[in-house]
What does this fold into?
Amino acid sequence: MTRRERADRRRGLLLMAPTLATLAVLTVYPGAWVLWLSLQYRVPAFGVDRFAGASHYAFLAGDPRFWSAARTTALFTVASVGLELVLGVAVALALVGQRRGRRLAFSLLLLAWAMPAVVTARLFEWLYHPAAGLLNVLLGGLDLNWLGDPALALPAVVLADVWRTLPFVAVLAYARLLGIPTELYEAAQVDGAGRLATFTRVTLPLLRGVLLIAVLFRTLDALRAFDLMFVLTGGGPAGTTETLTVYAYRGLFQMLQLGFGSAVGVVVFALVMLVAWAYLRLLRAGEAAA
Amino acid sequence: MSRGGRLRDALVLAALAAYAVPFVWQLLTSLKPEAELLRVPPLLPARLTLDHYRVVLEQSLIPRALLNSLGVAGLTTLSALLLGLPAAYALARLPVPGRSALLLGIVASTAFPQIATVSPLYLMMRALGLRDTWTALVLAHTSFALPLVIWLLAGFVREIPPALEESAAVDGASRGQALRFILLPLLAPGVASAGLLAFLFSWNEFLFAYTFTATGASRTVPVALALFPGVFEVPWGDIAAASMLASLPPVLIVVGLQRYLVRGLLAGAVKD
It folds into this structure.
Protein backbone atom coordinates (compact mmCIF):
# COMPACT_ATOMS: atom_id res chain seq x y z
CA MET A 1 0.00 0.00 0.00
CA THR A 2 1.38 3.37 -0.96
CA ARG A 3 1.44 6.30 1.39
CA ARG A 4 -1.24 8.02 -0.62
CA GLU A 5 -3.53 5.00 -0.40
CA ARG A 6 -3.05 4.84 3.32
CA ALA A 7 -3.84 8.52 3.62
CA ASP A 8 -6.99 8.01 1.55
CA ARG A 9 -8.14 5.18 3.75
CA ARG A 10 -7.61 7.30 6.81
CA ARG A 11 -9.41 10.23 5.23
CA GLY A 12 -12.29 7.93 4.27
CA LEU A 13 -12.70 6.65 7.81
CA LEU A 14 -12.50 10.18 9.16
CA LEU A 15 -15.29 11.32 6.83
CA MET A 16 -17.38 8.30 7.82
CA ALA A 17 -16.76 8.66 11.55
CA PRO A 18 -19.59 11.07 12.45
CA THR A 19 -22.09 8.97 10.52
CA LEU A 20 -20.87 5.72 12.03
CA ALA A 21 -21.04 7.19 15.53
CA THR A 22 -24.57 8.51 14.92
CA LEU A 23 -25.86 5.24 13.51
CA ALA A 24 -24.14 3.25 16.24
CA VAL A 25 -25.97 5.24 18.91
CA LEU A 26 -29.32 5.71 17.16
CA THR A 27 -29.74 2.49 15.17
CA VAL A 28 -27.35 -0.31 16.15
CA TYR A 29 -27.57 0.20 19.91
CA PRO A 30 -31.40 0.42 19.97
CA GLY A 31 -31.47 -2.60 17.63
CA ALA A 32 -29.52 -4.65 20.17
CA TRP A 33 -31.38 -3.14 23.11
CA VAL A 34 -34.78 -4.13 21.72
CA LEU A 35 -33.65 -7.77 21.57
CA TRP A 36 -32.61 -7.54 25.22
CA LEU A 37 -35.86 -5.78 26.16
CA SER A 38 -37.87 -8.53 24.50
CA LEU A 39 -36.36 -10.96 27.02
CA GLN A 40 -37.51 -8.91 30.03
CA TYR A 41 -40.65 -8.42 32.04
CA ARG A 42 -40.70 -4.67 32.01
CA VAL A 43 -43.80 -2.90 33.28
CA PRO A 44 -42.64 0.55 34.43
CA ALA A 45 -46.08 1.41 35.82
CA PHE A 46 -45.77 -1.34 38.46
CA GLY A 47 -42.03 -1.17 38.87
CA VAL A 48 -41.65 -4.65 37.36
CA ASP A 49 -38.22 -5.25 35.86
CA ARG A 50 -36.88 -8.80 35.69
CA PHE A 51 -35.55 -11.33 33.27
CA ALA A 52 -38.18 -13.25 31.32
CA GLY A 53 -36.09 -15.41 29.03
CA ALA A 54 -37.98 -16.46 25.93
CA SER A 55 -41.33 -16.48 27.70
CA HIS A 56 -42.81 -13.60 25.67
CA TYR A 57 -42.03 -15.49 22.49
CA ALA A 58 -43.45 -18.69 23.96
CA PHE A 59 -46.60 -16.79 24.86
CA LEU A 60 -46.85 -15.32 21.32
CA ALA A 61 -46.66 -18.81 19.80
CA GLY A 62 -50.00 -19.63 21.43
CA ASP A 63 -51.52 -16.15 21.37
CA PRO A 64 -54.58 -16.03 19.07
CA ARG A 65 -54.43 -12.23 18.93
CA PHE A 66 -50.85 -12.42 17.68
CA TRP A 67 -51.76 -14.93 14.96
CA SER A 68 -54.75 -12.86 13.95
CA ALA A 69 -52.47 -9.82 13.63
CA ALA A 70 -49.97 -11.85 11.62
CA ARG A 71 -52.76 -12.96 9.29
CA THR A 72 -54.02 -9.38 8.92
CA THR A 73 -50.50 -8.18 8.15
CA ALA A 74 -50.12 -10.86 5.48
CA LEU A 75 -53.52 -10.12 3.92
CA PHE A 76 -52.89 -6.38 3.94
CA THR A 77 -49.45 -6.79 2.39
CA VAL A 78 -50.49 -9.20 -0.36
CA ALA A 79 -53.64 -7.29 -1.28
CA SER A 80 -52.05 -3.82 -1.23
CA VAL A 81 -48.87 -4.72 -3.05
CA GLY A 82 -50.75 -6.81 -5.64
CA LEU A 83 -53.24 -4.07 -6.43
CA GLU A 84 -50.59 -1.36 -6.44
CA LEU A 85 -48.53 -3.34 -8.90
CA VAL A 86 -51.35 -3.95 -11.37
CA LEU A 87 -52.85 -0.46 -11.10
CA GLY A 88 -49.45 1.23 -11.05
CA VAL A 89 -48.43 -0.44 -14.31
CA ALA A 90 -51.81 0.40 -15.85
CA VAL A 91 -51.39 4.05 -14.88
CA ALA A 92 -47.85 4.13 -16.28
CA LEU A 93 -48.99 2.65 -19.60
CA ALA A 94 -51.87 5.12 -19.79
CA LEU A 95 -49.60 8.09 -19.08
CA VAL A 96 -46.99 7.15 -21.66
CA GLY A 97 -49.52 7.42 -24.46
CA GLN A 98 -51.31 10.42 -22.99
CA ARG A 99 -51.15 13.78 -24.73
CA ARG A 100 -53.15 16.08 -22.48
CA GLY A 101 -52.91 16.51 -18.73
CA ARG A 102 -49.74 14.53 -18.28
CA ARG A 103 -48.07 17.07 -16.03
CA LEU A 104 -51.21 17.48 -13.97
CA ALA A 105 -51.51 13.72 -13.64
CA PHE A 106 -47.94 13.49 -12.49
CA SER A 107 -48.38 16.20 -9.89
CA LEU A 108 -51.50 14.55 -8.55
CA LEU A 109 -49.84 11.14 -8.26
CA LEU A 110 -46.79 12.56 -6.55
CA LEU A 111 -48.97 14.53 -4.19
CA ALA A 112 -50.86 11.44 -3.05
CA TRP A 113 -47.52 9.76 -2.48
CA ALA A 114 -45.84 12.72 -0.73
CA MET A 115 -48.63 13.55 1.73
CA PRO A 116 -48.47 12.32 5.33
CA ALA A 117 -50.24 8.95 5.74
CA VAL A 118 -52.17 10.55 8.58
CA VAL A 119 -53.69 12.99 6.07
CA THR A 120 -54.61 10.06 3.81
CA ALA A 121 -56.28 8.43 6.77
CA ARG A 122 -58.28 11.60 7.47
CA LEU A 123 -59.26 11.90 3.78
CA PHE A 124 -60.57 8.37 3.62
CA GLU A 125 -62.21 8.45 7.02
CA TRP A 126 -64.40 11.24 5.69
CA LEU A 127 -65.07 9.46 2.38
CA TYR A 128 -66.14 6.38 4.36
CA HIS A 129 -68.49 8.26 6.72
CA PRO A 130 -71.65 6.11 6.94
CA ALA A 131 -74.17 8.96 6.60
CA ALA A 132 -72.37 11.77 4.80
CA GLY A 133 -69.48 9.93 3.17
CA LEU A 134 -69.04 10.52 -0.54
CA LEU A 135 -68.52 6.82 -1.19
CA ASN A 136 -71.96 5.78 0.03
CA VAL A 137 -73.55 8.72 -1.80
CA LEU A 138 -71.87 7.76 -5.06
CA LEU A 139 -72.92 4.14 -4.55
CA GLY A 140 -76.52 5.33 -4.67
CA GLY A 141 -77.29 6.18 -1.06
CA LEU A 142 -76.07 3.00 0.60
CA ASP A 143 -75.50 3.16 4.33
CA LEU A 144 -72.53 0.85 4.59
CA ASN A 145 -70.42 1.39 7.68
CA TRP A 146 -67.07 0.90 5.95
CA LEU A 147 -64.83 1.27 8.96
CA GLY A 148 -67.25 -0.29 11.44
CA ASP A 149 -68.08 -3.49 9.62
CA PRO A 150 -65.56 -6.28 10.29
CA ALA A 151 -65.97 -7.56 6.74
CA LEU A 152 -65.36 -4.18 5.10
CA ALA A 153 -62.75 -2.50 7.30
CA LEU A 154 -59.66 -4.26 6.00
CA PRO A 155 -60.61 -3.75 2.32
CA ALA A 156 -61.27 -0.10 3.17
CA VAL A 157 -57.80 0.27 4.67
CA VAL A 158 -56.27 -1.51 1.67
CA LEU A 159 -58.06 0.86 -0.71
CA ALA A 160 -56.64 3.90 1.09
CA ASP A 161 -53.16 2.38 1.01
CA VAL A 162 -53.42 1.57 -2.69
CA TRP A 163 -54.49 5.16 -3.43
CA ARG A 164 -51.50 6.44 -1.51
CA THR A 165 -48.78 4.19 -2.87
CA LEU A 166 -49.69 3.17 -6.41
CA PRO A 167 -47.95 6.39 -7.58
CA PHE A 168 -44.63 4.92 -6.44
CA VAL A 169 -45.05 1.93 -8.76
CA ALA A 170 -46.50 4.13 -11.51
CA VAL A 171 -43.61 6.61 -11.49
CA LEU A 172 -40.97 3.85 -11.54
CA ALA A 173 -42.71 1.97 -14.35
CA TYR A 174 -43.31 5.18 -16.29
CA ALA A 175 -39.64 6.16 -16.16
CA ARG A 176 -38.67 2.71 -17.41
CA LEU A 177 -41.24 2.83 -20.22
CA LEU A 178 -39.82 6.14 -21.43
CA GLY A 179 -36.48 4.39 -21.81
CA ILE A 180 -37.81 1.75 -24.19
CA PRO A 181 -36.89 2.70 -27.77
CA THR A 182 -39.90 2.96 -30.08
CA GLU A 183 -38.05 0.81 -32.65
CA LEU A 184 -38.75 -2.18 -30.43
CA TYR A 185 -42.48 -1.60 -30.71
CA GLU A 186 -42.22 -1.00 -34.45
CA ALA A 187 -40.27 -4.23 -34.85
CA ALA A 188 -42.94 -6.11 -32.90
CA GLN A 189 -45.59 -4.58 -35.16
CA VAL A 190 -43.70 -5.58 -38.27
CA ASP A 191 -43.52 -9.11 -36.91
CA GLY A 192 -47.31 -9.05 -36.70
CA ALA A 193 -47.57 -8.96 -32.92
CA GLY A 194 -50.91 -7.76 -31.63
CA ARG A 195 -51.35 -5.42 -28.68
CA LEU A 196 -51.49 -8.17 -26.11
CA ALA A 197 -48.50 -9.99 -27.55
CA THR A 198 -46.52 -6.75 -27.62
CA PHE A 199 -47.39 -6.14 -23.98
CA THR A 200 -46.51 -9.63 -22.75
CA ARG A 201 -43.49 -10.17 -24.99
CA VAL A 202 -41.91 -6.71 -25.19
CA THR A 203 -43.17 -4.34 -22.49
CA LEU A 204 -43.50 -6.67 -19.54
CA PRO A 205 -40.06 -8.32 -19.81
CA LEU A 206 -38.46 -4.86 -20.01
CA LEU A 207 -40.41 -3.71 -16.95
CA ARG A 208 -39.51 -6.82 -15.00
CA GLY A 209 -36.40 -5.46 -13.28
CA VAL A 210 -37.93 -2.23 -12.08
CA LEU A 211 -41.13 -3.96 -10.96
CA LEU A 212 -39.19 -6.48 -8.88
CA ILE A 213 -37.52 -3.60 -7.05
CA ALA A 214 -40.86 -1.84 -6.63
CA VAL A 215 -42.41 -4.99 -5.17
CA LEU A 216 -39.54 -5.38 -2.70
CA PHE A 217 -39.78 -1.77 -1.52
CA ARG A 218 -43.56 -1.83 -1.29
CA THR A 219 -43.61 -5.19 0.52
CA LEU A 220 -41.19 -3.97 3.17
CA ASP A 221 -43.26 -0.79 3.58
CA ALA A 222 -46.52 -2.72 3.85
CA LEU A 223 -45.11 -5.03 6.52
CA ARG A 224 -44.03 -1.97 8.52
CA ALA A 225 -47.20 0.07 7.88
CA PHE A 226 -48.65 1.65 11.00
CA ASP A 227 -49.96 5.21 10.59
CA LEU A 228 -52.78 4.44 8.20
CA MET A 229 -54.58 1.74 10.18
CA PHE A 230 -53.74 3.28 13.52
CA VAL A 231 -55.49 6.53 12.62
CA LEU A 232 -58.18 5.12 10.32
CA THR A 233 -59.45 2.23 12.44
CA GLY A 234 -57.14 1.91 15.44
CA GLY A 235 -56.99 -1.80 14.61
CA GLY A 236 -60.75 -2.26 14.89
CA PRO A 237 -63.50 -3.23 14.42
CA ALA A 238 -63.14 -6.41 16.47
CA GLY A 239 -59.40 -6.44 15.73
CA THR A 240 -59.95 -7.05 12.01
CA THR A 241 -57.42 -4.43 10.96
CA GLU A 242 -54.94 -4.97 13.78
CA THR A 243 -51.58 -5.62 12.15
CA LEU A 244 -48.46 -6.75 13.97
CA THR A 245 -47.22 -3.16 14.19
CA VAL A 246 -50.46 -1.97 15.79
CA TYR A 247 -50.39 -4.92 18.21
CA ALA A 248 -46.78 -4.12 19.11
CA TYR A 249 -47.70 -0.48 19.71
CA ARG A 250 -50.61 -1.41 21.96
CA GLY A 251 -48.37 -3.78 23.91
CA LEU A 252 -45.74 -1.09 24.36
CA PHE A 253 -47.67 2.05 25.06
CA GLN A 254 -51.21 1.05 26.00
CA MET A 255 -50.72 -2.14 28.00
CA LEU A 256 -47.40 -0.54 29.02
CA GLN A 257 -45.61 -3.88 28.78
CA LEU A 258 -42.31 -2.78 27.30
CA GLY A 259 -40.86 -6.29 27.22
CA PHE A 260 -43.85 -7.92 25.60
CA GLY A 261 -44.37 -5.11 23.08
CA SER A 262 -40.69 -5.22 22.17
CA ALA A 263 -41.00 -8.94 21.47
CA VAL A 264 -43.76 -8.23 18.93
CA GLY A 265 -41.59 -5.45 17.46
CA VAL A 266 -38.71 -7.89 17.13
CA VAL A 267 -40.99 -10.28 15.24
CA VAL A 268 -41.81 -7.49 12.74
CA PHE A 269 -38.11 -6.72 12.48
CA ALA A 270 -37.25 -10.38 11.82
CA LEU A 271 -40.07 -10.65 9.29
CA VAL A 272 -38.85 -7.62 7.33
CA MET A 273 -35.26 -8.83 7.27
CA LEU A 274 -36.34 -12.36 6.33
CA VAL A 275 -38.44 -11.10 3.42
CA ALA A 276 -35.64 -8.82 2.20
CA TRP A 277 -33.10 -11.62 2.42
CA ALA A 278 -35.30 -14.22 0.72
CA TYR A 279 -36.19 -11.75 -1.98
CA LEU A 280 -32.59 -10.82 -2.75
CA ARG A 281 -31.70 -14.52 -2.90
CA LEU A 282 -34.54 -15.20 -5.31
CA LEU A 283 -33.49 -12.23 -7.39
CA ARG A 284 -29.93 -13.48 -7.58
CA ALA A 285 -31.04 -17.03 -8.41
CA GLY A 286 -33.24 -15.58 -11.16
CA GLU A 287 -30.33 -13.61 -12.56
CA ALA A 288 -28.08 -16.66 -12.50
CA ALA A 289 -30.70 -18.72 -14.35
CA ALA A 290 -31.34 -16.05 -16.96
CA MET B 1 -55.78 13.23 -33.95
CA SER B 2 -57.62 9.96 -34.50
CA ARG B 3 -60.99 9.38 -32.88
CA GLY B 4 -59.63 6.40 -30.96
CA GLY B 5 -56.78 8.53 -29.64
CA ARG B 6 -59.13 11.25 -28.49
CA LEU B 7 -61.40 8.74 -26.76
CA ARG B 8 -58.43 7.20 -25.02
CA ASP B 9 -57.23 10.63 -23.90
CA ALA B 10 -60.65 11.41 -22.49
CA LEU B 11 -60.82 8.08 -20.65
CA VAL B 12 -57.45 8.67 -19.03
CA LEU B 13 -58.49 12.16 -17.97
CA ALA B 14 -61.69 10.74 -16.46
CA ALA B 15 -59.69 8.16 -14.51
CA LEU B 16 -57.44 10.96 -13.33
CA ALA B 17 -60.40 12.98 -12.14
CA ALA B 18 -61.64 9.94 -10.20
CA TYR B 19 -58.21 9.57 -8.64
CA ALA B 20 -58.29 13.21 -7.52
CA VAL B 21 -61.65 12.80 -5.75
CA PRO B 22 -60.40 12.08 -2.20
CA PHE B 23 -58.27 15.19 -2.27
CA VAL B 24 -60.77 17.49 -3.98
CA TRP B 25 -63.55 16.31 -1.70
CA GLN B 26 -61.50 17.17 1.38
CA LEU B 27 -60.66 20.57 -0.08
CA LEU B 28 -64.35 21.18 -0.73
CA THR B 29 -65.24 20.00 2.77
CA SER B 30 -62.76 22.43 4.27
CA LEU B 31 -64.62 25.28 2.55
CA LYS B 32 -68.18 24.17 3.29
CA PRO B 33 -70.35 25.86 5.91
CA GLU B 34 -70.77 23.69 9.01
CA ALA B 35 -74.52 23.23 8.47
CA GLU B 36 -74.04 21.66 5.04
CA LEU B 37 -71.34 19.16 6.00
CA LEU B 38 -73.55 16.22 6.85
CA ARG B 39 -76.17 17.05 4.21
CA VAL B 40 -75.14 15.32 0.99
CA PRO B 41 -76.40 15.41 -1.69
CA PRO B 42 -76.13 18.12 -2.95
CA LEU B 43 -72.43 17.60 -3.51
CA LEU B 44 -71.60 21.24 -4.06
CA PRO B 45 -72.07 23.76 -1.27
CA ALA B 46 -74.36 26.77 -1.67
CA ARG B 47 -71.54 29.06 -0.62
CA LEU B 48 -67.90 28.78 0.39
CA THR B 49 -66.48 29.85 3.72
CA LEU B 50 -63.10 30.15 5.41
CA ASP B 51 -64.60 29.55 8.85
CA HIS B 52 -62.90 26.18 9.32
CA TYR B 53 -59.50 27.61 8.53
CA ARG B 54 -60.16 30.43 10.97
CA VAL B 55 -61.05 27.96 13.73
CA VAL B 56 -58.01 25.80 13.00
CA LEU B 57 -55.61 28.72 12.88
CA GLU B 58 -56.98 30.55 15.90
CA GLN B 59 -58.15 27.85 18.28
CA SER B 60 -56.25 24.65 17.59
CA LEU B 61 -52.77 23.30 18.08
CA ILE B 62 -52.19 23.18 14.32
CA PRO B 63 -50.27 26.49 13.89
CA ARG B 64 -47.89 25.52 16.68
CA ALA B 65 -47.63 22.00 15.20
CA LEU B 66 -46.80 23.45 11.78
CA LEU B 67 -43.96 25.39 13.39
CA ASN B 68 -42.74 22.26 15.22
CA SER B 69 -42.88 20.23 12.02
CA LEU B 70 -40.99 22.85 10.05
CA GLY B 71 -38.33 23.02 12.75
CA VAL B 72 -37.97 19.28 13.18
CA ALA B 73 -38.01 18.48 9.46
CA GLY B 74 -35.64 21.34 8.66
CA LEU B 75 -33.14 20.33 11.34
CA THR B 76 -33.42 16.65 10.41
CA THR B 77 -32.69 17.48 6.77
CA LEU B 78 -29.76 19.65 7.76
CA SER B 79 -28.17 17.10 10.07
CA ALA B 80 -28.74 14.21 7.64
CA LEU B 81 -27.07 16.19 4.84
CA LEU B 82 -24.18 17.47 6.98
CA LEU B 83 -23.40 13.96 8.22
CA GLY B 84 -24.34 12.18 5.03
CA LEU B 85 -22.45 14.22 2.43
CA PRO B 86 -18.92 13.41 3.68
CA ALA B 87 -19.90 9.80 4.31
CA ALA B 88 -21.38 9.41 0.84
CA TYR B 89 -18.28 10.95 -0.72
CA ALA B 90 -16.02 8.61 1.23
CA LEU B 91 -18.08 5.55 0.25
CA ALA B 92 -18.16 6.56 -3.41
CA ARG B 93 -14.56 7.72 -3.88
CA LEU B 94 -12.21 6.57 -1.14
CA PRO B 95 -10.93 3.08 -0.28
CA VAL B 96 -12.81 2.87 3.01
CA PRO B 97 -12.06 -0.45 4.72
CA GLY B 98 -15.10 -2.74 4.78
CA ARG B 99 -16.93 -0.58 2.27
CA SER B 100 -19.35 -3.15 0.90
CA ALA B 101 -20.31 -4.26 4.41
CA LEU B 102 -20.91 -0.62 5.36
CA LEU B 103 -23.07 -0.05 2.29
CA LEU B 104 -25.06 -3.20 3.03
CA GLY B 105 -25.57 -2.06 6.62
CA ILE B 106 -26.74 1.35 5.42
CA VAL B 107 -29.23 -0.16 2.97
CA ALA B 108 -30.44 -2.59 5.63
CA SER B 109 -31.03 0.23 8.09
CA THR B 110 -33.29 2.03 5.59
CA ALA B 111 -35.48 -1.09 5.83
CA PHE B 112 -35.51 -1.04 9.66
CA PRO B 113 -39.07 -1.08 11.00
CA GLN B 114 -39.58 1.89 13.31
CA ILE B 115 -41.78 -0.21 15.57
CA ALA B 116 -38.70 -2.23 16.53
CA THR B 117 -36.58 0.71 17.67
CA VAL B 118 -39.35 2.81 19.16
CA SER B 119 -39.18 1.22 22.63
CA PRO B 120 -35.40 1.53 23.18
CA LEU B 121 -35.38 5.03 21.70
CA TYR B 122 -38.26 5.96 24.00
CA LEU B 123 -36.31 4.75 27.05
CA MET B 124 -33.23 6.58 25.78
CA MET B 125 -35.09 9.87 25.32
CA ARG B 126 -36.68 9.51 28.74
CA ALA B 127 -33.33 8.82 30.38
CA LEU B 128 -31.82 11.87 28.69
CA GLY B 129 -34.77 14.05 29.67
CA LEU B 130 -35.55 14.70 26.02
CA ARG B 131 -39.22 13.71 26.00
CA ASP B 132 -41.43 16.28 24.37
CA THR B 133 -38.55 18.17 22.75
CA TRP B 134 -37.57 18.86 19.15
CA THR B 135 -34.19 17.28 19.87
CA ALA B 136 -35.73 13.84 20.51
CA LEU B 137 -37.54 13.93 17.17
CA VAL B 138 -34.57 15.29 15.23
CA LEU B 139 -32.37 12.50 16.62
CA ALA B 140 -34.92 9.76 15.95
CA HIS B 141 -35.71 11.08 12.46
CA THR B 142 -32.04 11.47 11.59
CA SER B 143 -31.48 7.80 12.38
CA PHE B 144 -33.79 7.02 9.45
CA ALA B 145 -33.09 9.95 7.14
CA LEU B 146 -29.31 9.58 7.31
CA PRO B 147 -28.99 6.12 5.71
CA LEU B 148 -31.45 7.19 3.01
CA VAL B 149 -29.44 10.35 2.26
CA ILE B 150 -26.12 8.46 2.16
CA TRP B 151 -27.54 5.84 -0.15
CA LEU B 152 -28.85 8.46 -2.59
CA LEU B 153 -25.81 10.74 -2.46
CA ALA B 154 -23.28 7.93 -2.86
CA GLY B 155 -25.09 7.06 -6.10
CA PHE B 156 -25.07 10.67 -7.28
CA VAL B 157 -21.35 11.08 -6.54
CA ARG B 158 -20.61 7.94 -8.54
CA GLU B 159 -22.38 9.46 -11.55
CA ILE B 160 -19.84 12.29 -11.64
CA PRO B 161 -16.63 11.25 -13.39
CA PRO B 162 -13.64 11.35 -10.97
CA ALA B 163 -11.53 12.63 -13.85
CA LEU B 164 -13.02 16.10 -13.28
CA GLU B 165 -11.64 16.33 -9.76
CA GLU B 166 -8.35 14.78 -10.83
CA SER B 167 -7.80 17.28 -13.61
CA ALA B 168 -8.47 20.09 -11.14
CA ALA B 169 -5.80 18.56 -8.90
CA VAL B 170 -3.40 18.51 -11.86
CA ASP B 171 -4.12 22.20 -12.34
CA GLY B 172 -2.84 22.76 -8.81
CA ALA B 173 -6.10 22.79 -6.86
CA SER B 174 -6.05 21.19 -3.44
CA ARG B 175 -8.41 18.32 -2.75
CA GLY B 176 -10.60 20.62 -0.72
CA GLN B 177 -10.76 23.15 -3.55
CA ALA B 178 -11.57 20.42 -6.08
CA LEU B 179 -14.43 19.30 -3.88
CA ARG B 180 -15.78 22.76 -3.29
CA PHE B 181 -15.51 24.16 -6.79
CA ILE B 182 -15.90 21.06 -8.98
CA LEU B 183 -17.78 18.32 -7.19
CA LEU B 184 -20.18 20.24 -4.99
CA PRO B 185 -21.75 22.38 -7.75
CA LEU B 186 -22.26 19.25 -9.88
CA LEU B 187 -23.72 17.44 -6.90
CA ALA B 188 -26.12 20.26 -5.96
CA PRO B 189 -29.21 18.80 -7.71
CA GLY B 190 -28.54 15.46 -6.03
CA VAL B 191 -28.23 17.16 -2.66
CA ALA B 192 -31.57 18.85 -3.33
CA SER B 193 -33.20 15.50 -4.16
CA ALA B 194 -31.82 13.77 -1.08
CA GLY B 195 -32.70 16.74 1.12
CA LEU B 196 -36.28 16.83 -0.16
CA LEU B 197 -36.82 13.15 0.58
CA ALA B 198 -35.33 13.56 4.06
CA PHE B 199 -37.59 16.55 4.67
CA LEU B 200 -40.71 14.71 3.49
CA PHE B 201 -39.83 11.67 5.59
CA SER B 202 -39.55 13.80 8.71
CA TRP B 203 -42.62 15.90 7.88
CA ASN B 204 -44.75 12.77 7.45
CA GLU B 205 -43.32 10.60 10.23
CA PHE B 206 -45.91 9.59 12.79
CA LEU B 207 -44.87 6.75 15.11
CA PHE B 208 -41.87 8.41 16.78
CA ALA B 209 -43.57 11.79 16.83
CA TYR B 210 -46.67 10.30 18.45
CA THR B 211 -44.64 8.42 21.06
CA PHE B 212 -42.01 10.99 22.05
CA THR B 213 -44.21 14.09 22.24
CA ALA B 214 -46.72 15.07 24.88
CA THR B 215 -47.74 18.69 24.36
CA GLY B 216 -47.72 21.54 21.89
CA ALA B 217 -44.06 22.07 22.76
CA SER B 218 -43.08 19.42 20.22
CA ARG B 219 -46.17 17.80 18.66
CA THR B 220 -45.80 17.72 14.90
CA VAL B 221 -48.55 18.14 12.33
CA PRO B 222 -49.36 14.44 11.77
CA VAL B 223 -49.73 13.98 15.54
CA ALA B 224 -51.87 17.09 15.97
CA LEU B 225 -54.03 15.95 13.06
CA ALA B 226 -54.41 12.42 14.42
CA LEU B 227 -55.38 13.80 17.83
CA PHE B 228 -57.56 16.61 16.50
CA PRO B 229 -60.08 17.15 19.28
CA GLY B 230 -63.80 16.82 18.93
CA VAL B 231 -65.85 17.60 22.01
CA PHE B 232 -69.32 16.31 21.24
CA GLU B 233 -69.08 15.54 17.58
CA VAL B 234 -66.31 15.13 15.07
CA PRO B 235 -65.48 18.54 13.54
CA TRP B 236 -65.18 17.27 9.96
CA GLY B 237 -64.79 20.70 8.43
CA ASP B 238 -62.01 21.70 10.81
CA ILE B 239 -60.25 18.38 10.28
CA ALA B 240 -60.46 18.91 6.52
CA ALA B 241 -58.95 22.38 6.87
CA ALA B 242 -56.20 21.00 9.11
CA SER B 243 -55.49 18.24 6.56
CA MET B 244 -55.09 20.84 3.84
CA LEU B 245 -52.65 22.81 5.98
CA ALA B 246 -50.70 19.64 6.81
CA SER B 247 -50.33 18.89 3.09
CA LEU B 248 -49.12 22.36 2.23
CA PRO B 249 -45.33 21.71 2.20
CA PRO B 250 -45.72 18.45 0.24
CA VAL B 251 -47.93 20.34 -2.25
CA LEU B 252 -45.35 23.10 -2.64
CA ILE B 253 -42.57 20.56 -3.11
CA VAL B 254 -44.54 18.54 -5.66
CA VAL B 255 -45.52 21.62 -7.63
CA GLY B 256 -42.32 23.61 -7.36
CA LEU B 257 -39.53 21.07 -7.05
CA GLN B 258 -41.00 18.10 -8.90
CA ARG B 259 -37.86 17.42 -10.93
CA TYR B 260 -35.71 16.88 -7.84
CA LEU B 261 -38.37 14.84 -6.11
CA VAL B 262 -38.76 12.45 -9.04
CA ARG B 263 -35.01 12.14 -9.46
CA GLY B 264 -34.63 11.19 -5.82
CA LEU B 265 -37.51 8.73 -5.97
CA LEU B 266 -36.05 7.02 -9.02
CA ALA B 267 -32.47 7.01 -7.76
CA GLY B 268 -33.49 5.42 -4.47
CA ALA B 269 -35.17 2.56 -6.19
CA VAL B 270 -33.26 1.93 -9.39
CA LYS B 271 -29.69 2.05 -8.19
CA ASP B 272 -28.15 -1.08 -6.75
In short: Chain B has a mean pLDDT of 91. Chain B has two domains: 3-51, 61-270. Chain B has 13 helices and no strands.
